[in-house]
Design goal:
homotetramer, about 35% helix, oxidoreductase (chains A, B, C, D), Myo-inositol 2-dehydrogenase / D-chiro-inositol 1-dehydrogenase (chains A, B, C, D), Dihydrodipicolinate Reductase, domain 2, GFO_IDH_MocA-like_dom (chains A, B, C, D), NAD(P)-bd_dom_sf (chains A, B, C, D)
């Protein structure tokens, strides 16, 4: 067994803590060597809680730390692209939470820097590592599903968000970007050429005038004629809901049955099964698998299973969807490319 | 199309009314021509409600009525055997609700009378006509399930019964007799040779001393070594529950998923599906199919799909199970045969 | 019990035969008195098979037949509107298969004729009578689902169609019109204001140039901001698939679980459940319930549960969807109203 | 965070390797410090594969190793009791795979030694830690299920066993002992007083004469009248199947839905879901949770969640069941106590 990969975590919030815990508890091939977060004391606190020695308030210290082979970027989305560039320039491999960038220009800069440095870049589209989705892809690759005709992917959060803290286009750039990537993943070899999106503030209608979009439907056309539908809503009374469906010429695969487990209680109200309540519960193993795949790519020098190019393609769809809402018409992907 | 079979209904209670409605509404090959019930006015009332002309307080009138080709016996269980004999002696075909008899001697008398008269006798083991069970039998007959090893059949009623009106051995003679027939149906070619039963008053413990048995488990051995488990309880908080399972060398069939329909409501409590609440709801189509098969047998002169011999075999198992509880030991079927 | 309603069936094809069988076998309140079909001998053959006396090659004979109280129109779609008008002018109640008309002008003529004659008109949107959908509406009306935000309805046929016999816009006017009505049914009080549709020949790509559309996705906006998605495909390898979903502020209802029954076979390949294979299998009870409701409306003089206005509203959505495909942009419903 | 618990693994077979991997990869609170196995080279090989330094062919070396705080016993069943005694006498905490002993006398010796030494003893009834079963117990403890009346627990292995290597009573002492413990776990406060068992060689009928029992049904009576059914079969064509059910006065809980994941494939054969194929797949998280609970008990000095007394009670049921098969009659638990 070669030495474990030294990982620094950038960002100590909800996802940062979770990724840190995954590295410490569930990834024997990696070792958490540092945590960085500009919030006073935050990095030290998480490092101590996880039993990983160093906490840095200044991310620049990460690049100077010789124990750091790779970074996991889980800071706010607007900082992602610059951190990928910085990591690459410092010769560090980088796992970056989605979205990798908020503009195509930034995405290109990140991709170029990574290519120039020859480091591994993997983007956090965790659904590709979830067992149901992986199994659907196996059915596709084996030809069992035939040629995809109608695809669907949806994401529903359990609600409780603060409308004042939702920037415009969040539903496209941070939520549906998962579904856009999933639809691409489930129709390998085809590319999305046009989208049409409708979106509104239905959970928080009072915030509609300030541009909040909390519910959206996006129809995508692939270059072979196949159609995809991506849906998202920021509130589901029953918890966290992620599902997918592929109707192909050979049959249909459905992913994500929403059940928390196999227990059913039958009582006066009927039969009740628990529903999933959060992403870290539903995707715990997927989060472990994606970081495991990243660590493996770093160790083997192999390519990452989700690339910067994948991140860029999903971003282009998200930008086109946002533009479609503004323009009230279908938008071709090549319209958002200048 | 030949003329419809003229049917007289004997018994106008819960099952009688339901069978009457089935004949009138859902069986084009039959015509309800009379209803008989000794309770004053009962026969007339049901006849009027169903739009069938005659109501008889005296069942003897049925045998004199030339419009009557066949009778459906849905009177109290203790009257069944004598009515089968009377019907046969009057040259009428007879569909008899289970149990056909309460003793093996009565069962033999009924079978002999029917054989002597050359009429059709069918017994009301409706589960044989329910789609799930029929489909399991198809899998068995096709060899897909292989040789049965472990079988299960269970019946749970929704409760609300009056303990004072439950005669001893009801759970064996009227409830589990369905499960005993089902287990025989699901292991064609084999016969039950021994049973061991445990039973108690768990729903109404206060009635235990008066001999109430409201919950029971019966283990059956088949002559090829296969094992069956029959279970019953007079109260399930979630409704009416009938299920079956066959584990064979080729796989497993499970019957009866307990769902009322395909609707699911996902809300704060999780995902809820309605459960089945009553036998006439669950088995409506099975009740129609069994009467339809009876009418068909009458019209074609063919054999009935559930015979008096089937009824006798299930009765022997029920009697042995009741004896097993009394004796506190396994009882061989040949012990109840004298 | 009042006298049964005398019903004449117009059209003796697949749906006509099925409706005829329903009237004869499953609707005690109605009597089939005539069948009309211009194809030589067709009406007589079906009338004989169903045991209903008269067969007419000339539909005009129906209007002269005093035994006819009501007609069930199951002839080709293009003849529907004129037959509704003729029935109304002859003073007959009319149940008309969908679509009631192919243009809004024809729909208006039918509605006007019915109103002038004071007869009952009901349109064949059978999904409103299917248990799952009815139960979802109960949850809506009770407030359990809260305010609908995202709705979905889909229809997939088992395939095997003849591309040469599919007129343009069939997928909208004959298939998706069910889904459009369903979405309106599941969001009572709101109306659709805009649609955007994409459609293609994916099952039969070779027919794309002749205008075949066999796969479609339609996004609908309601006047309160809610979003609906309707999907259809003319071929599903696994059979006939009709589903629905409502995500409301109070939770989610899902309708149509695709299972043929409760039997599951677990074998070397995993666990297998049969899927539904055809509409008459899935919706047998719904077809009975809708004709039963029609007969009840005729007998009671009450209003029909699905009106000509409902048919017109669904038609407007279908026409707008077809136009959206042609124009490549969202189309407002008021654009198809001149 | 206190120092991790130093764990030595005794036994390097299938379960030993799995437990070792769990300690190394999924239990941050424990450290694997040694592996012991008398087979030449086996301990060293597993220790090297897991990255844990020392491998001992002589288990006595474990007791001399000061880095060992606790042992995980995963050696052949016949060695368990003596190893528990040895561990206790050496002052080491001990996690012992089931069965803890093959006789009640051995069980008592193990319990006494542990008590005298004041060490923690936990027995490997992993089902208590599986999410579905844990959730059922929560429903029981909360009163939602009411008083248990009918309980069921079953175990089916995927087959492929070597009949020549199955000692008599294996099905009771090694397989059904899980179900006996589960039934006790699901009816807290009650004790089993009598069992009746039937068993046979149905998978391998040719081995019947040599005493092979590969299929069994056991009915258990609790002291409050409740009834339990335990079933086992050494071969299920569809994989590994563990299920449970509790029917209580308040409703029913069902555990173990047999699905490998949430993916369904609908194709020409119907809808197919993958079934679970092995225990380590089904219970991976349960195995981790039970070892985690053991480590926690060691660190906190708290009691183990599954005690030697639990192991003894399940053993008594297993011995009574084996005796019931031999005697062909129900056997009271107090009959196996001398």
């Amino acid at each position: 067994m070669s030495a474990p990969v030294g990982v620094a975590l950038i960002g100590s919030g909800r996802m940062g803590s979770f990724h840190g815990e995954t590295v410490v508890r569930r990834l024997p091939g990696a070792r958490l060597v540092a945590v960085a977060d500009p919030a006073p004391g935050a990095a030290e606190r998480l490092a101590a809680a996880l039993g990983a020695g160093r906490g840095y308030a200044d991310v620049a210290r990460v690049w100077e730390d010789p124990a750091v082979d790779a970074v996991v970027v889980a800071s706010p989305a607007r900082t992602h692209a610059a951190l990928v560039v910085a990591a690459a320039e410092a010769g560090r491999h980088v796992f970056c939470e989605k979205p990798m960038a908020a503009t195509l220009a930034d995405a290109d800069r990140a991709i170029d820097a990574v290519r120039a440095a020859g480091v591994v870049l993997q983007v956090g589209f965790n659904r590709r590592f979830a067992p149901d989705w992986r199994a659907a892809r196996v059915l596709l690759d084996a030809g069992t599903l035939g040629t995809p005709r109608l695809l669907r992917s949806l994401t529903r959060d359990p609600g409780g968000f603060d409308p004042a803290r939702v920037p415009p286009d969040t539903i496209f750039l941070e939520t549906l970007i998962h579904d856009f990537d999933t639809l691409r993943f489930l129709h390998p070899g085809a590319e999305v050429v046009e989208v049409h999106a409708v979106a509104d503030a239905l959970v928080e209608p009072g915030w509609r005038d300030r541009g909040l979009l909390d519910t959206a439907v996006v129809v995508l056309r692939f270059d072979d004629g196949a159609m995809g539908v991506a849906e998202a809503c920021f509130e589901a009374a029953y918890g966290y809901d992620v599902r997918g469906e592929v109707l192909g010429s050979g049959g249909m695969a459905t992913m994500g049955d929403g059940r928390r487990g196999g227990l059913a209680f039958s009582g006066p109200a009927g039969r009740v099964v628990e529903t999933v309540r959060g992403d870290q519960e539903l995707f715990r193993d997927a989060y472990t698998a994606e970081l495991g795949a990243f660590v493996e790519a770093v160790r083997s020098g192999g390519p990452a299973p989700v690339t910067g190019e994948d991140a860029r393609a999903a971003l282009a769809i998200a930008l086109a969807a946002a533009e479609s809402v503004r323009a009230g018409r279908p938008v071709r992907i090549d319209e958002v490319e200048k």
